[in-house]
Amino acid sequence: MLVVEGGPGKDQPLDEVVAKWKGISAGDGHSWSFDGPQRATQCAHAIRARLRPAAVRIGVHAGEVVRDGRHLRGEGMETARAIARAAAPGEIWVSQVVRDLVHGSALTFSPRRAVALPDGRSLTALASEAPGNQELVRTRKGR
């Protein structure tokens, strides 16, 4: 899941950017689900590059979501939203779960701080460093 805080307005739709990374809208214009955390993180960097970076805070998490009509909800979305709200302006923060799942990829991270979650738990967030011009490494034929 990827959540953008302080980002896209109605004049800055991100459908084209998100479509490149095969994201599925959560129905609110600033949250999406992806088939993997590497795609979500790469898309987060593309979104930040498209918007005014200093005004945007992005959170990425891998967890369960439920489709409720045209909307996505659940623990995964709420966690990504909490991470985005805690992120420093201009930064992309990810959960440790994301970092563990993309281990071995070209993505790099640096530790940030604990983020309080809506259910009272907390998790340590990491900042995703800019990957430069690297494209997502396709791990399966045809994808």
Describe what you observe in this structure.
By secondary structure, the protein is of the alpha+beta class. The protein has one domain (2-128): Alpha-Beta Plaits, CATH 3.30.70.1230. The protein has four helices and nine strands, in the order E-H-E-E-H-E-E-E-H-E-H-E-E. The protein has helices at 15-20, 37-50, 75-86, 96-101, and strands at 2-5, 24-25, 31-33, 57-60, 66-68, 71-73, 92-95, 109-116, 122-128. A seven-stranded mixed beta sheet has the order 2-3-1-4-7-9-8, sandwiched between helices. A two-stranded antiparallel ribbon has the order 5-6. It is globular, with a radius of gyration of 14 Å. The model is unreliable at 133-143 (pLDDT under 50).
SSE layout and pairings?
Layout: E1 2-5, H1 15-20, E2 24-25, E3 31-33, H2 37-50, E4 57-60, E5 66-68, E6 71-73, H3 75-86, E7 92-95, H4 96-101, E8 109-116, E9 122-128
Parallel strand pairs: 4-7
Antiparallel strand pairs: 1-3, 1-4, 2-3, 5-6, 7-9, 8-9
Structural features:
single chain, Alpha-Beta Plaits, 7-stranded mixed beta sheet
